[in-house]
Design brief:
The protein has 274 residues and is an alpha/beta fold. It folds into two domains: 2-107, no CATH class; 120-267, Rossmann fold (3-Layer(aba) Sandwich). The chain is 32% helix and 22% strand. Strand 3 (41-43) and strand 4 form a beta hairpin. The longest helix has 14 residues, at 210-223. The chain is globular. The chain starts with a strand and ends in a 7-residue tail after the last helix.
Length: 274
């Protein structure tokens, strides 16, 4: 999939700023996160301050812009009405408009949510529930990190079963005030329509384990989005129907996001030993 961005500015510029062929990770990093946090957006070498953004539009296509432009050009040649808009501009009219899947408020709405977090009750204990998949290295690094800052990482398989079923055990130990979800590309999935295709021609998606997604949704429902933080590795598919969550990308190790994670935990009311 390819994502394309169109930004209309309030300053009266007649030409919209366009950016094509972004991955979802690039889209979030370069446009969504700055918008959510009321920060400048840099596009085509131009710095656009948040108060000059009239509208951001995001569309998703299966074909890249280089594949779409010749089709658009041919289509426009058959039209009688003339327009000054470029073929490139029409790329942002193709496919599906997914703006609402990524943006759920005005510029800076994440800052407002952060202020609301400060009004949350102080956690009753220092436990943090850690939801993880098959990446043992990240799980172990996060466990050490949380211990070092004075918290008690609650990892379900380390707790005694006590004759409980898995869901009973999960419910027993889920009485926490904050959860960290680790999304890693553990499973490979593809559409059932690709079932007859060769392995090389299938459009594959790398996903977290199903139990991880289940527990992810459970904690979002129980604690609220502002008390769930998602750590993810590049390549994993991120849920597109859950907005306003804290997503932090891990490049090499948990240390990559250590400082920003500490800020979120302090904001959530935890008394850290740092």
């Amino acid at each position: 999939m390819y994502y394309h961005v169109k930004i209309k500015q309030k300053s009266g510029k007649t030409v919209d700023e366009l950016k094509f062929d972004l991955s979802e990770e690039e889209l979030r990093r370069r446009f969504i996160i700055p918008y959510e946090n009321n920060e400048n957006i840099v596009i085509n070498g131009i710095i656009i301050p948040p108060d000059n953004i009239e509208r951001i539009q995001i569309n998703k296509t299966e074909m890249s812009s280089s594949e779409l432009i010749p089709i658009i050009q041919t289509k426009r040649l058959k039209e009688t009405a003339s327009t000054l808009l470029s073929n490139e501009w029409y790329v942002t009219k193709e496919g599906k408009d997914v703006t609402d899947d990524f943006i759920s408020g005005p510029s800076g709405y994440k800052i407002k949510e952060s202020k609301e977090k400060m009004m949350d009750p102080i956690p009753q204990n220092n436990q943090i529930f850690v939801v993880h998949g098959h990446d043992e290295k990240i799980k172990y690094e996060l466990e050490i990190f949380l211990n070092e800052i004075g918290l008690d990482p609650l990892i379900l398989h380390r707790k005694p079963d006590e004759g409980l079923t898995i869901i009973e055990k999960f419910e027993k130990y889920s009485n926490v005030s904050f959860s960290i979800i680790i999304l890693t590309p553990d499973d490979i999935a593809y559409s059932s329509s690709d079932d007859e295709k060769t392995d090389e021609s299938c459009q594959k998606e790398y996903r977290a384990r199903q139990n991880v997604i289940f527990e992810f949704g459970y904690f979002v429902g129980k604690l609220g989005r502002n008390r769930v933080c998602c750590l993810y590795k590049e390549g994993v598919e991120l849920p597109s129907d859950i907005h306003g969550l804290l997503y932090k990308k891990i490049n090499n190790s948990v240390e990559d996001i250590g400082f920003s994670l500490i800020k979120e935990l302090k904001l959530a009311g935890y008394d850290l030993k740092i």
